[in-house]
Amino acid sequence: MGPKEKLPAHRVRTVILPAFRKVGLVPLFQQWSSSRPLWICLSRLGSLHLIVRGPRFLGEGSVIWGNYVRIHPYPARARRNRTRSAPIPGGIQRIVNLTLENASSFTALLELPATQAVELLHLSQSEEGTQAPPSGDIFQGIGDDHKPYLPSFDGNLTFPSNRALIEAAAKFSVFAAGENSPETSSVPSNSSANLGKVKSEPAETDSNPNSSQPLVPDPTVENKTQRSAKRKEQRKRAKGLRRRARTRALKKLRKLPYRHSELVAARREKINARMKLLQELVPGCSKVRLCLLDYAAFNNGFVPVTFSQKRCFCGKISGTALVLDEIINHVQSLQRQVEFLSMRLAAVNPRIDFNLDSLFATEGGPLVDSNFPSMASLSTVSRNPIQWNREQYQQQCPFDALHQPFWGREEDNHTFHFSRELPFES
Amino acid sequence: MESESQQRIYSTKLVEALRHVRQNSLPTSKSPSGREIRHAADRVLAVAAKGRTRWSRAILASRLSLRLANSRKHRKAKPGKVTGCSRLKRPEKKRSLPAVQKKVKVLGRLVPGCRKVSFPNLLEEATDYIAALEMQVRAMMRSPSSSPVRRSIGSAPALTCKALA
Asked: Which of B18, B34, B151 faces A356 most closely, judged by CB atoms?
């Protein structure tokens, strides 16, 4: 920390700092110049942001925040924030100009309480791509005391163009992403040294994907598979980010896609494919060709089905509602069958405790010679009880308990009845 | 949809489960009710599904919660709250009528654990569930039948449903 110097600090505190405080930024480094001040701020989460003043959207990584452009380390978030701008009290620009002229310094800012520090960058569009006046000019206005604190930057701190700014932002993302919160505490002290280091390393493994990856893929060019693959990629990358950035990036991915019609078509295909599978499973609809479902019914709102009934070639009426009817009936019948069979097994099992294995394995077991008509009775089931001779069956087979036409609530009564009567065989 | 090997696996597991049920019910010397057997069979089915599907997870979860609830019930029998039917007090509003939506809800209720599932996922779950149920029926029918009357599983329920209807 350098010698404390009196800024027009009150101005900074009352106007500029609150504005940054709203966004939760803490300035770490400030590079003053009359034309392009560059501020590097630390957010509450530990991500680094470049703040540049500019009137409009500078590039992928930049965010317009009032009059100031924040070069965001996470471009995905930046794009979403584009429309949002923190209310900056009017006159900041004027004040910044004044302070610039007064050559406030980094160290002076550092003195300020961390939550109040604000750095504003000033980057005019006209100066894009042009080499700004050498940094030495900036510091002329600054007292000599501060020069020792910014010597390493003299050579490096050329005024960045947009791309350079974005690259710097990307590097800062590396810087921020690579080092977690324990690092952030040391950032204020290291920032000056690290900045030079970071800037001198143009090729970072992470910065390249960050800066070079097109985040808005052209939907017309790619087909769906590519898009889904790209989205998976994005998702993977989103997962690599930190918590807040991750949730935002993922939310954004979820809210995609790029065109509503494509989304509708995708859902349509999904639903159609599954209905086809179901129709193959459910016997009632197998012959009926899958007619076009009414997609509006499955979109956000449900629509009455009357217009979805169509006649297919085999003369049967089919439609969404009917197919669903069939499916429901089938599921219900299967469940009833399971209940019935479990009832039967419950009645059967007292007799055949230990032959179950053989039963299930050989599918016949020791009961091959019994001549009870197993499930044939089921096919002719009716509400009337089957006429059969109990004694005869008792002798021959232990399974006459199964011969009851029980559907519905008659089951329990019948099983009780017959299980009492049947003699136990050891 | 289900292969023969899966059928065999399910059958063996079903036998095991039934034997367990037998042993559990023997001390009380009452034959296990159909309901218990059915629950056991459903559980085995859910296990055989390996938890990839939603309904299987719901079946397994419901068993656990049921057991907890039962154990709590045995510990203390709380007097039930007498609140009365709220529907009587407030006139019931007519819900939205689209038939498809109603049917979707019914289907959601039938498939365990799929009440608030989106429609395409519900269809998928229903597909798996129907296949699993068919396998279950086949396995249970196979067991104590002497001459296995192999019919298509679809025809019998159709007949019986029509008989009932």
From this structure: B18
Distance from CA of A351 to the nearest CA of B (A): 11
Distance CA A276, CA A278 (A): 5
Give pLDDT, residue A332. 92
* Per-residue pLDDT tens over the stretch A9-26: 666 566 666 666 777 777
Q: How many whole angstroms separate alpha carbon A172 and alpha carbon A50?
A: 9
Q: Which 259-278 residues of chain A touch chain B by CB within 8 A?
A: 267, 270-271, 274-275, 277-278
Q: Is B77 on the interface with A (CB under 8 A)?
A: no
Cβ-Cβ contacts under 8 Å for B50 (sequence gap 6 or more): B56
For residue A419, the one-letter residue type is S
Size of interface A-B (CB pairs under 8 A): 202
Residue B56 forms part of a structural domain: yes
- Mean pLDDT over residues A375-402, rounded? 43
Q: Which domain holds residue B41?
A: 2-73+105-142
Smallest Cα distance from B96 to chain A, Å:
9
Residues in chain A: 426
A8 at the B interface (CB within 8 A)?
Answer: no
- Buried (b) or exposed (e) across A18-45, using 16+ Cβ within 10 A? bbbbebebbbbbbbbbebbbbbbbbbee
Q: Model-level pTM?
A: 0.41
B19 part of a folded domain: yes
Residues of chain B above pLDDT 70, percent: 70
How high is the pLDDT of residue A27? 75
Q: Is B129 on the interface with A (CB under 8 A)?
A: yes
Structural domain count of chain B: 1
- What long-range pairs does B103-108 form, CB within 8 A, spacing at least 24? B103/A321, B103/A324, B103/A325, B103/A328, B104/A324, B106/A328, B107/A324, B107/A327, B107/A328, B107/A331
Residue A336 clears pLDDT 80, i.e. is over it: yes
CA A187 to chain centre: 31
**Which chain A residues are Cβ-neighbours of B136 within 8 angstroms?**
338
Q: Name the DSSP class of A86.
A: P
Measure the N-to-C terminal CA separation of chain A; round to a whole number of Å: 96
Most confidently modeled range among A72-81, A121-130, B31-40, B152-161: B31-40
